[in-house]
Write a structure and sequence with these properties.
mainly alpha
Length: 274
């Protein structure tokens, strides 16, 4: 009795559906969470815009004179930029929560206990960077440049658009830079780097800090470069300390345990078995 030939393509639609359906579900989830984040940012932007005049006045503290504007829309866009930065800060809990709910299904229970404290720590470090920049760095920078011009009998008259751009760039740069110790510590916890390796590459880190400062600072003067590079070097040293306290040794032991159990079985196509 002869058998009918098996068509290899007969199971292709079923196999393709196994890959396409989860991908479509992930894309839909990402779109939904991005919409929630966007709506939150928009609502926060509208709410904080009513306080934009107070925020501009607060940022204007280091500058002794009144800000001016040279274009019809310059004051409006400056207010929007300040309001957007405030909206991002206000929306951080929602942003972190949406990111957490997206990655939560892929995490083990042990990993989930680590995620929320890490999110809170990352948000706290970002805000700490903003506060440090506003209270310490920006007054020094603005006073230096204003005094430099006044010593040469030049009257300072800053436009609100240029001034707010200068402030917002510095704030965002320092907010992101303050995440460096956490990033280095996590790399050490994961076993990617060790405190000894970070210490060995200290000279390279100093050079990288100077190069990054020259690229990301709003102007290219040596003074602003050092004001950016020196805190980054200090943050790098804090990262080395965190790597030494919580990181793994060369043999993978010591420090604290990774959230991911290395003995966890691996299923088909790398799917982790719970």
């Amino acid at each position: 009795m002869s058998r009918s030939p098996v068509n290899p393509a007969a199971g292709c639609p079923h196999i393709m559906a196994q890959f396409i359906n989860p991908l479509a579900a992930h894309i839909s989830t990402v779109k939904r969470r991005l919409i929630i984040i966007g709506a939150t940012l928009l609502a926060a932007l509208i709410a904080t815009f009513s306080f934009s005049a107070d925020m501009v006045a607060w940022l204007n503290r280091p500058f002794p004179n009144q800000l001016v504007f040279y274009g019809p829309t310059e004051a409006l866009f400056a207010s929007i930029k300040v309001s957007f930065l405030s909206a991002v800060i206000v929306s951080l809990p929602v942003i972190f929560y949406q990111f957490w709910k997206f990655v939560e299904p892929a995490l083990l229970q042990k990993e989930q206990r680590w995620a929320i404290p890490l999110f809170l720590l990352a948000g706290g470090l970002f805000i700490l960077g903003l506060v440090f920049c506003n209270l310490v760095i920006l007054p020094l920078v603005i006073d230096f440049f204003v005094s430099f011009g006044m010593d040469r009998d030049i009257t300072p008259q800053l436009s609100v658009g240029t001034y707010i751009d200068f402030n917002v760039k510095f704030l965002l740069i320092f907010g992101c830079a303050f995440e460096l110790p956490l990033a280095l510590t996590l790399l050490a916890v994961a076993g990617v780097l060790t405190a000894k390796q970070l210490a060995q590459y200290r000279k390279h880190a100093i050079m990288a800090a100077l190069i990054i400062s020259a690229i990301v600072t709003p102007d290219a003067t040596l003074f602003t470069m050092l004001l950016m590079a020196v805190p980054m070097m200090v943050l790098y040293e804090i990262g080395i300390l965190g790597a030494w306290m919580f990181g793994r040794g060369k043999d993978g032991n010591g420090g604290i345990d990774l959230p991911l159990d290395p003995d966890l079985p691996i299923g088909t196509a790398g799917t982790r078995m719970r």
